[in-house]
Structure of Aminopeptidase:
Amino acid sequence: MLIASQMEPTYARTVYPCFDEPAMKATFNIRIIHDPSYVALSNMPAIDVSEVKDENGSLWTVTTFNTSLKMSTYLTAFVICDFDYVTRTERGNEIRIWARKEAVKNGYIDYALNITGTIFSFLEDILNVSYPLPKTDMVALPDFGAGGMENWGLVIFQEASLMNFPNDEFTRRKAMIALIVSHELGHQACEWFGNLVTMNWWNDLWLNEGLASYFEYLGATFVEPNLSLDKIFYAHVVQPVLREDSEIARSLSESEDRIKESFYIMSLFDNITYSKGASITWMLSSFLTEKLFIRALTSYLKEFSFSNANQDDLWTHIQMIVDAQDEVQLPAPVKKIMDSWTCQNGFPVLTLNLTTGTITQEQFLNKNNRKSTDSYNNTWIIPISWMRNGSSQPLTWLDKNSKMFPEMQVSESEYDWILLNVNLSGYYRVNYDQINLKRLARLLENDPKGIPAVSRFQLIDDVFALKDFGYVPIETALELTKYLAKEDELFIWNVVLLNLIPDNLESTLKNHEVYPLLKKYLLKRMLPIYHYYAGFIRQNVDALEGDYFAQVYLEKLLATACWLGLQDCLDLSSELYAKWRDNPKYKIPFLIRRTVCCYGVAVGSDKEWNFAWEMYNHTDSLEEDEDILLYAMSCAKESWLLYRYLQYGLSDTLFSSNCTSVIISHVMNKDIGHRIAWEFVTENWPLLRQGYGHELLHDVLKVMGRFVKTDVQIQELQVFYNATLEEDEREAITMLLESAKLENIERRKLLIKVASWLEKNVDD
């Protein structure tokens, strides 16, 4: 048994009567009466533990805590548990990490303990603030909705965010722990907004979380120096949120009166708040320089400690620091610059014309589904870091719709090129003209290292995003992939593969004439990086322990090589899988386990499949391995094996009910599986309907929808749905199928273009 609280944003009122708003700060005296075999924790240290009898004569423990500092209601917290802890003291702050007894005994939380003190000190030093509480408790809960919650002095995490298993997952898990711990500690010690200085109201939540996310990366790369800060920040924070932000109609900071209901407040805890907030902070820190940025934060924290502030208070402090020096000159007041990023939704795309040296900005919107009458006149004040022919140029600004930069006019020479937004210091995309793109593509083929790695990633990510939104044709994007044989960075390969072979389209592409061309074109370019990593996997996989990107992205590279039919990849998978069959104690390296098991089964016969089945049913297999095996068994290449797998899936005794629908969707996603799974679902519908009802139908439909190209196919699906669904649902389904059909027709047009481009370029 276990009790833990989560008050943010609006749940303190369900625990004790209060004015439950962040601006209303108070001190709290907390006392908890609990079972004597448990320990009670709260924000402050316990000052008294006594006993009391109830009317039945049973003994209870009363734990009384010291009076808290002045703080917001949403940060009060308590945990009642029978956990153990590990502890150490850093600068007078007693740090205890609590977890289930066996986890403590096995050393699973040692890593978190090792880094916590270091991150605290790092944040205190950089911001010149000292942590005001005498202790910090961190608790790892078996089940918790968020990654972590920064209750002052009692930080709560889900187990996965705090535990590192000494025998498995290398850096990937460590990096995640380092990130989550430094995010929550950023709130504790000192962060912009949060425990010490709190937002006036939830509309400025981004200051709280965006800044914690920014310091999260600084703190994590401080304790794990082999994490490359700019690459990880771009790949994990900026790139994903740029993809999302163009589809979402909300700005980072909303006006106060818009945010009243609790459910609306809850909806603010999203990627825009966390990742866009962190990206904007990163940009701010870049154009101010980190030195001035931190100086402004420090003065701000001093003034608003134990009280509340809003974003304008922060801009005022930055303005004071900027005015007091003359190294950094800004084109407008800080508030005006920053409001253009926080109060408007979306972000800009810059279009270059290098013959005239003109840069134009407009909001980045999907041109494919916009009526030409829509006009948006948002303007941002945009910092532009840039380089010309490999040498960095002084920062410049675009503060209106369009502006000429004589220094950016290029000459006739094809060696004269320009690169904007170097190392992604600004939150926007760049659309180059054809002249410059050709020059950049040429440079990549001759000397890819002439462009910094983050900028290579960005070039490719931008051009595919521009293609998706109708700014450039697919051919323009493909030109930038020619150089890839010389690309040795996995995080760049990953973005290429996600764009060329999205996970959900593998089976569609496999059945299309583009596949053999793609196979020839990509394998030729993938071989160098594939062999580099395959060598490690065969000889010394532990050497990859410090390579964070190998932990995260090697799987996709290997899976693609096998999917493209690279013999060495298929052999490697069979070898490692056979090794495991010979000795079930052997562990296939975790970073490629999913792919190896999948292709081990695919290349093998029923013997390989039966072994996966046997291992799945082993009682001591880890949950992660069970997921991998559920997936691997759907990789079989023989129809009867897939059919038998689906039959097994129906049995209550073999699977828990939520596995059945997972099995069906795994099989359905495979190139030979989708017809088999569809027939299986239609034949067994009465049985399935009892267990899963419409959710399963929806999932099945989404996958089937990818194969719908004609009205006849829609009719076939409809016949089945009409017999099983209510009237109102049928309409929704028909619309879904219609839009799937249109998407597929569009995709076919696109694939025809890709195929004809590949035909011309496959032998280059």
In short: The first strand starts at residue 3 and ends at 4. The chain has three domains: 190-345, 350-369+379-480, 490-762. Residues 190-345 form a domain with the Neutral Protease; domain 2 fold (CATH 1.10.390.10).
